[in-house]
C-alpha cells in the first residue's frame, strides 16, 4: 500500500509538471504568433507607403517633371530633394502641403521601421520552446514509467487481495457449515434430540474484511435473541461450538481448556464433557478423516467431578502442609470406565 501511494503521488507530481511545461510552451507560441502578426502588419504599411511614393514618381515622369535625386543607393528607393525643383513647379504646388506630405511620409517610414526593430522576434524563443518540448517529453516518459510501476504494484496488490479473500471464504464456508452441527451435538438431549441452532452471517459478503461476522445461536426451546442477552452458560456453549468448528478447519494436536465449565449447570457440564471425550478417544484420534472425526487430545482444568470423571487420566494438585508446597498425583481412570 505504501509503494502504491508513493507511485500515485509521484504520478500526480509528474502530471502537474507536464501541465506547467505545456502552459509555458503555449505562452511562448502565442507570443511568437503575436509578434509575427505585428511584423506582417508593419511590412504591409511600409509597402503601401512605398507604393504611394512610386505613384508620385511615375506621375512626375508622365508630366516630364525632373525630380532632383539625392541618392540612388537607398534600399527604399531614390531619395529626392524637392528644394532643387524649378521655381515654376514650386509655385504650381503649395510648398507647405508638399513639405508636410514629405515629412509625414518620412516620419511614418521611420516610425514603422523603428517599431519593427522594437518588435523583432526574440530568436532565442525558438530555442526555449524546443527546450520546453524536450523537458515535456522527459517528464512524459517519467510519468509513463511511474504509471506502469503503479499498475504493477496495483496488480500485485489485487492478486494478494483476491488470494486473501479466497482463503478467508474457504475458512468461513467450512466453519459456517460445521458450526450448527457441532452446536447441536453440544445441546441435544433426550428431551430435545435435535438440539439448538447456530449459524454465521457476513455483514458484507462482497468485502468481508471491512465489516463484521454475526454469530447467532438459539438454545433448545429458546427464541431468537442477541448473543449479549444469553446467559453465561449459553454463551460458554456457543463459544465452545465456535472453537471446535474452527478446529475442524485447521485441526490442532491438542486443546488446553481452563475451567470452561465454570458457568455451566450439571446438565450442560455432562454434555460438554461427553462431546470432548468423544473427540478425545483413541478411535477419534485414529480416524481423523471420518465424518465427525477431527479428533484431538485435550487437557482440561476443572473443579467439577462430573466433568473430570469422563477423563482417561486425572492429575490432582494439592497442598503438602508438612513441606509447605504444592504436590501432584496422577490417577489412570481407564481401568474404571464403564
Describe the structure.
- It comes from Thlaspi arvense (Field penny-cress).
- One of its GO terms (biological process) is cell division.
- InterPro entries: P-loop_NTPase (IPR027417), RecF/RecN/SMC_N (IPR003395).
- The protein is of the alpha+beta class.
- The protein has two domains: 2-122; 173-336, P-loop containing nucleotide triphosphate hydrolases (Rossmann fold, 3-Layer(aba) Sandwich).
- Helix content is 58%, strand content 13%.
- It has eight helices and eight strands, in the order H-E-E-H-H-H-E-E-H-E-H-H-E-H-E-E.
- The protein has helices at residues 2-62, 87-92, 95-118, 124-187, 232-249, 266-280, 282-286, 305-308; strands at 69-71, 79-80, 197-202, 213-218, 254-258, 297-301, 313-320, 325-332.
- The strands form four sheets. It has a two-stranded antiparallel sheet with strand order 1-2.
- Helix 1 (2-62) packs antiparallel against helix 3 (95-118), helix 1 (2-62) runs antiparallel to helix 4 and helix 4 crosses helix 5 (232-249).
- The longest helix is centred in the middle third of the chain and has 64 residues, at 124-187.
- It is rod-shaped.
- 11% of the residues are buried.
- The mean pLDDT is 80.
Amino acid at each position: 500500500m505504501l509503494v502504491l501511494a508513493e507511485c500515485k503521488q509521484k504520478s500526480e507530481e509528474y502530471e502537474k509538471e507536464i501541465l506547467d511545461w505545456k502552459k509555458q510552451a503555449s505562452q511562448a507560441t502565442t507570443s511568437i504568433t503575436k509578434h509575427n502578426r505585428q511584423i506582417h502588419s508593419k511590412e504591409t504599411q511600409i509597402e503601401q507607403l512605398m507604393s504611394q511614393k512610386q505613384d508620385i514618381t511615375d506621375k512626375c515622369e508622365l508630366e516630364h517633371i525632373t525630380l532632383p535625386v539625392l541618392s540612388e543607393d537607398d534600399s527604399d528607393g531614390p531619395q529626392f530633394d524637392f528644394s532643387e525643383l524649378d521655381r515654376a513647379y514650386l509655385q504650381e504646388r503649395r510648398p507647405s502641403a508638399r513639405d508636410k506630405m514629405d515629412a509625414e511620409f518620412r516620419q511614418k517610414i521611420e516610425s514603422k521601421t523603428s517599431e519593427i526593430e522594437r518588435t523583432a522576434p526574440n530568436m532565442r524563443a525558438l530555442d526555449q520552446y524546443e527546450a520546453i518540448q524536450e523537458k515535456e517529453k522527459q517528464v512524459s516518459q517519467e510519468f509513463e514509467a511511474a504509471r506502469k510501476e503503479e499498475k504493477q504494484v496495483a496488480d500485485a496488490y489485487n492478486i494478494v487481495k483476491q488470494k486473501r479473500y479466497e482463503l478467508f471464504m474457504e475458512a468461513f464456508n467450512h466453519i459456517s457449515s460445521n458450526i450448527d452441527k457441532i452446536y447441536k451435538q453440544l445441546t441435544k438431549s433426550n428431551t430435545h434430540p435435535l438440539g439448538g441452532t447456530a449459524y454465521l452471517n457476513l455483514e458484507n459478503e462482497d468485502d468481508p474484511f471491512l465489516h463484521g461476522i454475526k454469530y447467532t445461536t438459539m438454545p433448545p426451546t429458546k427464541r431468537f435473541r442477541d448473543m449479549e442477552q444469553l446467559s453465561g452458560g449459553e454463551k460458554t456453549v456457543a463459544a465452545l461450538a465456535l472453537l471446535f468448528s474452527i478446529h475442524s478447519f485447521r485441526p490442532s494436536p491438542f486443546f488446553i481448556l481452563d475451567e470452561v465449565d465454570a458457568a455451566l449447570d450439571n446438565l450442560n457440564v455432562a454434555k460438554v464433557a461427553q462431546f470432548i471425550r468423544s473427540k478425545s478417544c483413541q478411535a477419534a484420534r485414529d480416524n481423523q478423516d471420518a465424518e465427525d472425526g477431527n479428533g484431538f487430545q485435550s487437557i482440561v482444568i476443572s473443579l467439577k467431578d462430573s466433568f473430570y470423571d469422563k477423563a482417561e487420566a486425572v492429575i490432582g494438585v494439592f497442598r503438602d502442609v508438612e513441606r509447605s508446597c504444592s504436590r501432584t498425583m496422577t490417577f489412570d481412570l481407564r481401568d474404571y470406565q464403564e
